[in-house]
Amino acid sequence: MTQEPILPTGYSDIHSGIVEVLETARHTAARSVNALMTASYWEIGRRIVEFEQGGKERAEYGEALIKRLGDDLSRQFGRGFGWRNLTQMRSFYLAWAAGHILQTASANSSTQPILQTPSAKSGGAPAVGSHAKQSPDLVALAARFPLPWSAYVRLLSVRNEAARTFYETEALRCGWSVRQLDRQIGSQFYERIALSKNKAAMLKKAEQVEPHDRITPEETIKDPFVLEFLNLKDEYSESDLEDALIQHLADFLLELGDDFAFVGRQRRLRLDDTWFRIDLLFFHRRLKCLVVIDLKVGKFSHADAGQMHMYLNYAREHWTKPGENPPVGLILCAAKGAAEAHYALENLPNKVLAAEYQTVLPDEKVFVEELERSRRELEARRITEPDSVLLGENGAEDAQ
Questions:
Q1: Which of 204, 250, 265, 344 has the fewest CB atoms below 10 angstroms from its CB?
Q2: Is 86 exposed, middle or buried (0-12, 13-18, 19+ CB in 10 A)?
Q3: Domain ranges of the chain
Q4: Which residues sit opposite 277 in a β-bridge?
């Protein structure tokens, strides 16, 4: 039996000190990325607004300008700079004027002021990035945005300006994470506290952090907004079992014949201010349509069907190419001992096409049997090889 080496006196101190350095560095790095990203988006919004207001002809160009910019920037910097995101950056600039930022941010008072919005009337010295062709000091600008970009996106959804200012102020005062902010907005905290007779008690309670509210530096970096800004791939998966099942299903579909062509895995899509991930995306060559596959480790529910309906609408609008048929959905539920498989054909334009899909696509029972077999095999491996990763040698990266 191997004996543990005797550690020198003070080892725990140096170990804990290094851990503290690394954790602080990671938090600081994640915060820096978010702050610079937010400052960049504010500056992009400013340039769009000022260009639009440069003349009547430009103002009339409006939406066409943003769509052209979105196409050009997406080709160069990735899909995080499409016209929808640019529209949001424009709204961000209009909502967060320099005066508002100075009131809410904890920036050093010695830094230069940020340019006022076009509607503001002020005659001070030149501001940071005051000319559209001038490169702004993004570091100085970033200091004015103490919240992460995803928090500002959530705040933008609050139409009432007084409520939005309240949530921003409380987020700064209480140090709310994005999850806390989302929970408070969702529970209409502003409206509830306005009616409360004991506002101090409610504000005190709002400072409490629930276990699921905390966000690690790793989660911050894997925020889809950050991944898009840095143009990085997202290889996130919630659990080894789910990840392994997705990999097995991808292999299984490819083994069924040459009808299924792999398109993507963990494909991100954004609806309003919420991000979703599609587990598997295939193209069926004979049916000439996309096949959207959503895996649930638990039991089937009607909410799953509603979510798939939403996925298919998005896929038809954004991913379907000219000449292709409407996409079809496949919901797979891998609950232990109660696996289910359901095709989603409600979105198809007519019954004839639905009948054709049902004739060509594999029977749902085939997927149920494969789910049960894969789960038994994976759980057996987990018991016999508790320290191993379920994916095997190729892992998730081969599926990208």
A1: 204
A2: buried
A3: 11-116+136-229, 240-399
A4: 268
Q: What pLDDT does 21 receive?
A: 92
Specify whether the CB–CB gap between 70 and 83 falls below 8 A. yes
The amino acid present at 279, given as its one-letter code, is D
Q: What is the pLDDT of residue 233?
A: 57
Name which of 329, 302, 301, 300 is nearest 314 in CA terms: 329
* Average pLDDT for 376-387: 57
Residues in the chain: 400
Instruction: Classify domain 240-399 at the CATH topology level.
Output: Trna Endonuclease; Chain: A, domain 1 (3.40.1350)
Which structure tokens are listed for 379? 């759980």
Highest mean pLDDT among 99-103, 185-189, 194-198: 185-189
Q: What share of the chain has pLDDT > 90, as a percent?
A: 10
Model pTM score:
0.54
Do 319 and 312 form a contact (C-beta atoms < 8 A)? no
Q: Maximum CA pair distance of the chain?
A: 83
Element spanning 203, H or E:
helix 199-206
φ and ψ of 299, to 5 deg: -85, 160
